[in-house]
Each structure stands twice: as structure tokens, then as C-alpha cells.
Write a structure and sequence with these properties.
Low-confidence stretches: 1-24
Strand order of the largest sheet: 7-6-8-5-9-11
Shape: globular
CATH superfamily of the largest domain: Bacterial extracellular solute-binding protein, family 7
CATH architecture of the largest domain: 3-Layer(aba) Sandwich
Number of helices: 14
Number of domains: 2
Amino acid sequence: MKLLKPIVALGAAALALAVTAASAQDVTLRVHQMLPEQATIPAKAIAPWAQRVEEQSNGRINVQMFPSMQLGGAPPELYDQAASGVVDVIWTVIGYTPGRFPTSETFELPFIMSLSAEENSRAFHEFMVENASREFTDTHVLAFHTHGPGLIHSRNPVTSLEDFQNLKIRGGSRVINLMLEKLGAEPVGMPVPAVPEGLSSGVIDATTIPWEVTPALHVAELVHNHTGFSGDHGWYTQTFVFAMNKNTYDNLPDDLKAIIDANSGPDLAAEFGRAMDEGDDVGLKIAQDAGNNIITLDEAETERWKAVAQEVIDDWIADMNDRGYDGQALLDRARELIDQNSMM
């Protein structure tokens, strides 16, 4: 009987250690982002990613979704929430922190992007891995991607460069705002969730977003004119990052880390881009079904916009050179990767 207590104690200790070891192998990932859960990327890209990692880990990874900034803060704070460990995973617009990630701006330059977000996203991910490692050392990046071609969604029709003059128009990043200003509009910086209120209240006359995001924001109901451009390159795109807290990733057991790795990289970037392309089709159809005015500027008019936009590119190259980057080399490499991925 005297031996029973030590044996029981040892058994309890062993059980406690086993439970602790088992629980140490289980991980909960809190994913925080700015849009409603039914929006394209949350529903068609992040949710499938979460389902895969949960299934491939046999439930040892549990993914909790927090849309629409439910964990607090504002969209420009999302990247720092991942960097600091406030949350485990974020998806956000890179340009919401102007000047912080200058290399990503290369893909926001006017009239260089592919018309396919899937192709463009694969190119963008490869480009960022090659050129921007020093800018993202405080998180573990899962994927970089872009949206499809940006358009003008406006109260009044924009059929020429003259129609664009003095419009108060929402721009989503530093480079896009520079482009809008150079083209003669008055850029208004605001995160995309603020666009419906901006249009409703008259704070802005128009917004620059792709078709994909228009359904979630009811843009086709708020304005009835939508302007795009001729040619095989989009007017602009915006860039995104899907990133994990570095310590969260580093502390994963090797087998769970391997699952995250298998669900990261250029294929994931392309998947996010493909969701954007499919969302563009949905947004366009909604506007068409509503009888809205869908405008495509002809080649001659598009060339007028390109001529002005070239000034933005020249200014950006000079600015990047001043920062210690080779702006022309970055642009040349971006165009090379875009062309390569457009031929796949």
C-alpha cells in the first residue's frame, strides 16, 4: 500500500505530461482581415486554404476566421497585428501602409499588369520573393497576390481624359493616388470598406476598384458608370499579402510546418488571383444585369492616358533610385515576369 501513492502519483504525472505534449502539438490560427466573410477572397481563397490545412493536419490545426476587423483596429494596422502576434494570420492590402513596402509598388504602376489576376499574381509572388525579402522579415509570408484590372466606377460617365479632371476619386495606395493626381483628378485615400459611405455621402465622385469587389460594396447600385481601357494590360492593380506571425510559424512542429509550406507560395498566390478573376466576372455581370453604362475607352483614348501615366513611372523610378533601389531594374523584371506568366 505504501507503494501505491508513488505509483499513482507517477501515473498522474505521466498522464499530465502526455496531455501537455498532445496539446502542444495542436495549433489554433486566428485569421484576421477587413472584408465580410462572403466577399471573394475570404470566401473563395482564405476559407478553402483553412479547410485544406485543417484536413491535412487531421484537425490538429484549427483555423478561426475573424472578418470585417472583428478583432479590432483598422485595415492599415493588419500587417502589424501579424508582426506583433496580436493575431496569427492576416490578409491585407500592402499599400495601406504607404512607403513601407516600396518594392511592391512596382506592380501598381500603370498599364503594366496582365489582364489576368491569376497570371499577374504568380508573377508578383515570384517577383516579391526575389526582390522584397528585406521588407518582410517580421512575418512569414504565405502568398503575395494582386487583383484584376482596376477600373473607374463613377457617378457621371468618364469617356475621356477631360471627363476625369477634378473628380474626387478614391485611390487605394500611394502609387495609385500619384497616378490619379497626375491624370488630373483629386485622389482621396480611404480603405476599401469605406467606399460605400464615401459614394453615398458625396465625399467621393468615383472609386478605383476592380469588378471583383463591387458586389460586396454594392457599387453597381451606388454609381452606374464603369470605365475600363483597351489593350492587353490593365490600368493598374493593387497588391496584397497573406502572412503569418513569424513566431507562430517558427514554433510549429515540423510536420505541421510542412503542411503550411505545402499550402503557401506561387500556387497559392495564383489561387488567390484566380478567385479575383472569377469575382471580376460576377461583378461585371451584376452591373450588366442592372443596365449600367459599361465603357471601354478605345485605343486612341487609352494611349492618351498611357502618355500621362508614363510620367508616374518616370517619377517612381527616380524616387526608388533616391531610396537606394534600382527602379528601372525592378520595373524591367516585373514586366519580364508578367510576360512570362502571361504565356503559360
